[in-house]
Amino acid sequence: MQLIAIRNILVFLFVACFFFYPRLQTLFISLAFFLTFFTGEFYEFKNRVLQNQISWVFIAFFTLGLVSLLWTDNMAAGWKGIEIKFSFIAFAIFLPLIFNVKSFNFSRVINVLTISSLVYVALSFGRAIYIYSETGNFSTLLGSTLGFRMFQDAPFVHPTYVSFYFLTLILIWGKNLIEGGKELFTSSIIGKVSLLLAFFVFVFFSSSKAGLLGMGIVVVMLLALFAKREKKTIQAIGFFVFFLIVMVVGIYNTNLKLKFEQAYIELTDPNLQPDANLKSTGARIWIWKATNEIIKENPIHGVGLGDTRDELSTKYKKMGIKSLEGSDLDSHQQFLQTFATLGLLGFLSLSLIFIVIIMTGWKQKNFLLLGIGLIYLLFGLTESMLETQGGVVFFTFFVFFFASTNNRLNNTSNE
After folding, report:
1. Which of 17, 75, 204, 223 yields a CA-CA distance of 20 to 30 A from 196?
2. Residue pair 302/68 in contact by the 8 Å Cβ criterion
3. Other Cβ atoms within 10 Å of 12 Cβ, number
4. pTM value > 0.85
5. How far apart are CA 17 and CA 389, in angstroms?
6. Residues 81-95, buried b or exposed e (16+ Cβ, 10 A)?
7. What percentage of the chain has pLDDT greater than the value 70?
8. Contact 166, 202 (CB under 8 A)
9. Within 10 Å of residue 1's Cβ, how many Cβ atoms?
10. What Å distances lie between residue 328 and 129, 309, 314, 315, CA to CA?
C-alpha cells in the first residue's frame, strides 16, 4: 500500500508538469511505472489491458510507426518520432493498471491539474502585463507570447496546446457545475464559475483559432448536458446565444478579427499562389497540397516515420512555396500527416483510435471521454497534435484516465 501511495504521488507530480517544466514528466511517470512491477497490480493485466480496446488500438498505432522505420531513410528523425509516440504503448500497458478506482484518487488528479493551471494563468498574465507596462504593446497579452518561462523551457505550451488543456478543464469543471458535484477542492457555485471564467479568458487570449472553435464545441456539449439533465432546452439555447454575442464582440475588438478575416480571404481566394505572402491559413492550404502529393506517391506504406518532414521540405521547394522553404513544418493536419507517414493502414489505424474512443464514450455515457475524443478530433483537422510530446502525452494520459474512471469524479477510497 505504501508503494502505491508513492507511485500515485509521482503521477500527481507528472500531472503538475503539464504546465511547468515538462522535461521532468518522463522521470516521474517512468518511476511510477517501475513501482507498478512491485505493487501486485500486474495480476490484473489480462482484465485491464488485454481486454481494453483502447489499449489495443493505441498499441497497433505505435507498432505501425515502429515498423515504418524499415523503409525510413532519416533514422535519427525516425527514432525521435518513436520517442514522441512511445506513450501510445507505455501508457496503454501501465495506465489501465494504475487507474484502478479502488486505489487511485480521480479527484486529486483534477485538483492538481487545476491548481497548476491557475498558477500558470497567474504567472503568464503577470509576465505579460509587466512586459506591456514596459513596451505598451498589447500583443504581449495575446498568442504565443502569453506563457511563463521556467528553466528556459518556455513558453512551453503552444497556444493551440494550452487551449486544448484548458478546454479539457472546462469540460471537467463545467460538468461538475451542472451535476452539482462536491468532491473537488471547491464545491461552491461561485468558485466553479470563477474557475470556468478564468479558463475561458485564457483560451480567448491565447488567440488560437482552433482553440476558439474548440471552445464553441465544448460550450455546445456542456449546454446539451445541461438541457438533458435539467430539462431546460430554452435556457440552454439562451446561454449559447449569449456566448456567441460575447465571442463576436470580443473577436471584433481585438486582433483576432484580423486573423479570422485573413483566414477567410485565403480560404476563399481561388487564385492563391504558393509564392504569396502566406499567413497561417494560406500556409496550411499549401502544406496540405504538398502532403497530398506525398500521399499520392506513397499511398500504401507512406514514407516512414522519419522522412515526412524531409519529403515536405522537398515538396515546398518543388512547388515554389517560398515562405515555407527550409521551415521544417509538418502537415498541420493529423490525418494527412499520418497518411503521408504510415500510408493507408496508418490512416485507418488513427481513424480507429477516434472511433473507439468516441463510441466507448457514447456507449458508456462517459461525457469526459467523449469530449476529449471530439476535441482532439477537431484539433487534428488543423494541427498535427500527435507529432509532439505535449500533444501525445496529454492525449494518451487523459484518454485512459477518463476511460478507466468511467466518468466518475468521486473516489471514496484513499491512498
Report:
1. 17
2. yes
3. 18
4. yes
5. 13
6. bbebbbbbbbbbbbb
7. 88
8. yes
9. 7
10. 33, 6, 10, 11
